[in-house]
Design brief:
Order of helices and strands: EHHEHEHEHEHEHEEHEEHEEHHEH
Bound molecules: pyridoxal-5'-phosphate
Number of helices: 12
Radius of gyration: 21 Å
CATH topology of the largest domain: Aspartate Aminotransferase, domain 2
CATH superfamily of the largest domain: Type I PLP-dependent aspartate aminotransferase-like (Major domain)
Shape: globular
Number of strands: 13
């Protein structure tokens, strides 16, 4: 198997799996219980919290564990809006993950004025349009750090500066940068930041939200006093402990992983461009997570490429993993100006920690022939593209 869908989810690191298995065997206590087997689990959760906090330069008390990156996005946006009821505007971009996009749509239904800041052909945010969009009535600005489909990295430091000039809070969805490039909440200048464990070789079903000390926020899930009252419900203890271990591993891995994967991504990109005619690489050439490739194979349906690769044991995705079961054209590819037929021909390949040079060679060995064969039987007139 050659797994090239690491932006959708990553394999569990063996060290994380081992930590979780040992935890599940030995610890069943409820962290809210006051006797030793509960206190011990609470302590382990706090060790994980420390580890996640450290991985982004945050304070331990600024990290709340949630059930997913999606929940963290919802909590950040709805939680801040509810805490600032007099502010009825929300600013975001046209290329956000559905976790933010659909939360914005929900706010619109609730009567909020939602402003969608456009991006350029590389997927970079229009900072002048952002400046025009933010007002003193804005409750929150939410702009993703790196895009999950095309990898473009937004200038979040500038976004923070612009919003803060108006006294407005800033949230960033950093699910696709966490573990890929070093994160520092101070340098980014943001007030809230979303991450998810299963994109950093940790378990699925656990996320975290960084909330800068003093930020006004209300819970969206009500019940017990877990997570200092911000996220009720008995904690996903094994998931959190696994998340802590995955974040701890980043300390040694992020540098070497980043360099190696950028080089691998570059080799894959160059190989595709030199061996296959009529391809288009999407995303910013420089300001991009280099291990994410968004490739349009002009004249083809992306599903056909995906399925042909899958028969060879190579797993990629079409556009974004989250829209795989829908016929809709990716809103991200539309936002960067791709015509629908180009968008429908787009495949995403995302490399991760466990990919090797050999994986890239295997893909480059079979892809040109697959594309050539499919183009022969394609209903589209490829000469026109
Ligand atoms: C940018 C971004 N935000 C949020 C999410 C959602 O995270 P989770 O799967 O933990 O809900 C994803 C997952 O694909 C993502 O890529």
């Amino acid at each position: 198997m050659v797994y090239l869908d690491n932006n959708a989810t990553t394999p569990l690191d063996a060290a994380v799996a081992e930590t979780m298995a040992a935890f599940l065997r030995e610890h069943f206590g409820n962290p809210s219980s006051l006797y030793p087997i509960g206190r011990q689990v609470k302590e382990m959760i706090n060790t994980a919290r420390e580890s996640v906090a450290r991985s982004m330069g945050a304070g331990k008390a600024e990290i709340t564990f949630t059930g997913s990156g999606t929940e963290s996005d919802n909590q950040a946006i709805l939680g801040v809006c509810e805490a600032l009821p007099d502010k009825r505007e929300f600013v975001t971009s046209t290329v956000e993950h559905p976790a933010v996009q659909e939360t914005a749509a929900y706010l619109e239904k609730k009567g909020y004025a939602v402003k969608y800041v456009p991006v350029d052909a590389f997927g970079l945010l229009d900072l002048d349009a952002l400046r025009d969009a933010v007002t003193s009535r804005t409750a929150l600005v939410s702009i993703m750090h790196a895009n999950n489909e095309i990898g473009t990295i937004q200038p979040i430091e500038d976004v923070s500066r612009i919003a803060h000039d108006h006294g407005v809070l800033v949230h960033t969805d950093a699910v696709q940068t966490f573990g890929k490039i070093p994160l520092d909440v101070e340098a980014l200048g943001i007030d809230l930041l979303t991450v998810s464990a299963h994109k950093i070789y940790g378990p699925k079903g656990v996320g975290a939200l960084y909330v800068r000390k003093g930020t006004p926020i209300r819970p969206i899930i009500h019940g017990g006093h877990q997570e200092r009252g911000l996220r009720a419900g008995t904690e996903n203890t094994a998931g959190i402990v696994g998340f802590g271990e995955a974040a701890r591993l980043l300390r040694d891995r992020i540098g070497p992983d980043r360099e190696r994967l950028a080089a691998l991504g570059e080799r894959l990109r160059a190989g595709i461009q030199s061996r296959i005619p009529k391809v288009r690489m999407n995303g910013h050439p420089e300001r991009r997570i280099k291990s994410t490739l968004s490739v349009s194979f002009l004249g083809l349906e992306a599903e056909a490429v995906l399925l042909a690769l899958a028969t060879k044991g190579i797993y990629v995705s079409t556009g974004s993993a989250c829209s795989e079961d829908s016929d809709e054209v990716s809103h991200v590819l539309t936002a960067i100006g791709l015509r629908p037929e180009f968008a429908r021909s787009t495949v995403r390949m995302s490399l991760g920690r466990f990919n090797t040079d050999e994986d890239v060679e295997i893909v480059l060995g079979v892809l040109p022939e697959i594309v050539a064969k499919l183009r022969k039987i394609s209903a589209f007139d490829t000469e026109e593209w």
